[in-house]
Automatic annotation (TrEMBL):
Family: Belongs to the FPP/GGPP synthase family.
Cofactor: Mg(2+)
Protein name, entry field: Polyprenyl synthetase family protein
Taxonomy, superkingdom: Bacteria
Keywords from the named record: Isoprene biosynthesis, Magnesium, Metal-binding, Transferase
Organism phylogeny: Bacteria, Pseudomonadati, Pseudomonadota, Alphaproteobacteria, Hyphomicrobiales
Any Pfam family matching the protein: polyprenyl_synt
Keyword DNA damage in annotation: no
UniProt cross-references to PANTHER family, sorted A to Z: FARNESYL DIPHOSPHATE SYNTHASE (PTHR43281)
Amino acid sequence: MSSAQPASEEALAAGLAETADAIEALLASLLRDEPEAGEIHRPARLLAAMRHGALGGGKRLRPFLVAEAARIFGAERPQALRAGAAIELAHCYSLVHDDLPAMDDDDLRRGRPTVHKAFDEATAILAGDSLLTLAFDVLSDPATHRDGETRAALVLMLSRALGAGGMVGGQMLDLAAEGRFPAEGAPARLGEAAILRLQAMKTGALLAASVTLGARLGQADAGSMAALTEYGRALGAAFQVADDILDVEASPEQMGKATAKDDARGKATLVTALGLEAAKRERDRFSEAAVAALAAFGAEAGMLRAAARFAASRKS
């Protein structure tokens, strides 16, 4: 394999599966009923709802990105898996809350009832809150990294990716684009640049953070962090445009959730702004930009290159 080539599809599939199995086992351990030191009691219904939202499905792409970036810089795999588990807990929190009636109002997630359908809305809100809190618990634990300054840096990076200037802010922009706030007037039709900013916040910020957290675990230098940030943002853009395309082209069975909902809700996507074929060209352009950002890393970044191609070509 030359330095510019991605890993094979088979190698990527094997790597994703290996990381997914390890993350599933780690999440199951973190979500056990027995309280940790300093806790008083873990209510059984709350833990069951948290497990429903976090276990038993998903590609675990974000933990995979953490682990691969960490590997390039020589970080220990157990540390990378813990950081990956923290990212996945935060991602699962966002899905639990996004599925609520007040947000996207979805009944299915990963082919199963969403948390608020399997339990109830109040439990789903608390389960999401607890998954997010646990993410920071894991990331700030000395088991994730022995150096306190490194742990603080990881917490800051994840906080910035998730908050008002990242994922949550992107969700707010998404709701505004749907016309959810009539008191503020009719929503303006978003152009391509505004849609890309929204998606960079809502989806791309956490994907980019997955890569940079892994690199930070391995004490990567500033130049490497900048290149991986560029990679992560381009990867996130490709992933989200691919998701918008799948909402049009894929079946609910493929996706494990309802499809053909974006246009009905007036969601701001590149498909609605540019048309399907132009959106596909943009998806592929972002994927190639992600690959190009890894030029300095040689063969060591083969899996990350493959992940960029996967983000554009996936079918679910």
